[in-house]
Specification:
It is a single chain. By secondary structure, this protein is α+β, with helices and mostly antiparallel strands. The protein has one domain: F-actin capping protein, beta subunit (Aspartate Aminotransferase, domain 1, Alpha-Beta Complex), CATH 3.90.1150.210. Helix content is 42%, strand content 40%. It is built from 2 helices and 4 strands. The longest helix is centred in the middle third of the chain and has 35 residues. The protein is elongated, with a radius of gyration of 27 Å. The termini are far apart. The relative contact order is 0.12. The model has no long low-confidence stretch (mean pLDDT 87).
Length: 146
Amino acid sequence: VILIKKAGDGSKKIKGCWDSIHVVEVQEKTSGRSAHYKLTSTAMLWLQTNKVGSGTMNLGGSLTRQTESDASVSDASPHIANIGRLVEDMENMIRNTLNEIYFGKTKDIVNGLRSVQPLSDQRQQAALRQDLAAALQRRQAKGDSN
């Protein structure tokens, strides 16, 4: 079992914590020169931001993934090195997945719910678009009648 913890200190107005748990099962092959590794990993993420313009936002969740791999075992590549590579690759994969899922989706949802632009500006832009569309239609109608 491998436990990893990374805590943010809040120095950039962001507090957070990353905890990951990796459980490794090793089955040595009968030859003794290779082994089958089964890795089950869970990462738990928690973030809190507090900004004047957007207020407080809390985000948290977990993700569990599992992988299996065969690797040779020797003095140059012992179990600890093989397990280390597996855990490092899994941490990177989970981090990338969390980045896509949590941050990408959260950004899409927040952008859909909240507008940085004032409502009056949005209405003004919509009116301008309608005026332009009407002017183009009138211009097309004139061109068609000639």
